Amino acid sequence: MLLGDRPSPPAVVAHRGASADHLENTIEAFRAALAQGADWVELDVRRTADAALAVHHDAALPDGRALVGLPAAELPPHVPQLGTALDACRGMGVNIEIKNLPGDPDFDPDDHLAVEVVAHLEARREDPGGIPQPVIVSSFNPETIARVRLLDPSIPTGWLVLEVPRPEQTVQRAVEAGHSALHPLAHVVDQTLVRTCHEAGLALNCWTVDEPARIRELVAIGVDGIVTNTPGVARRIVDELSAGS
């Protein structure tokens, strides 16, 4: 499981949906991910001028307009809000990445976006008509996911990292922060990092992997989640290796 239960095989996580075949972070991409056999979807959240939760990777639209300067009503039709996206991902878990880095036009040191994401998830959880849906919240910004944990420690969190120069220190920092998972860039993942995470009780979910040979390697060394733009390809490989084990 993505959250560290660690049965084999690893979870197939559709990166922004089935984004090799559809426009990323769209309802079509999320629905296609389920059809292609994804276990989870990874999506990105940014804030709009009126504090809506827009599902979009970049801080600005292709025409250069920053999302933080637009009210939700002026977003293009293909940009969903978080609630609509989560509804489209029914049947899968969802990794919600909160975008909040210094240098971005929408950077907020007070982490209001984290507050809004937690409030949204709590409201969905309390809806008597809602369907339980596994969720993990991740970010590159340690302060942002620390705010999530402060607001609601029951929400699993994952720390996104580009490099892991000292595995023991990185893993220890993640554990001390209370995270459920480490989310490293796939090229830095090896058997030592996987073992270090697992010995500390952390899941390891790596991104973003489309090459079949590398997917096979990651399955072999025991990662917990493989984030990919091609969930159908990853599904076939994971199932094939699982059947042969």
Distance between the termini: 18 Å
What fraction of the residues are assigned to beta strands by DSSP?
15-25%
Instruction: Write down the overall mean pLDDT.
Output: 94
Question: Helical content, roughly?
Answer: 25-40%
Categorize the overall geometry.
globular
Total helices: the number is 8
**Total number of β-strand segments?**
9
- Structural class call reads alpha/beta
If you compute it from the alpha carbons, what radius of gyration comes out, rounded to the nearest whole angstrom?
Answer: 17 Å
Major sheet size, sense and barrel closure:
8 strands, parallel, barrel
Sequence of strands across the biggest β-sheet: 1-2-4-5-6-7-8-9
The SSE string, one letter per element, is EHEEHEHEHEHEHEHEH
Q: Which blocks of ≥5 consecutive residues have pLDDT under 50?
A: none
Architecture overview:
The structure is a single chain. With 245 residues, the chain is an alpha/beta fold. It is built from eight helices and nine strands. The longest helix is centred in the middle third of the chain and has 15 residues, at 112-126. It is globular, with a radius of gyration of 17 Å. The two termini are 18 Å apart. The mean pLDDT is 94.
Short synopsis of the structure:
The protein is of the alpha/beta class and 245 residues long.
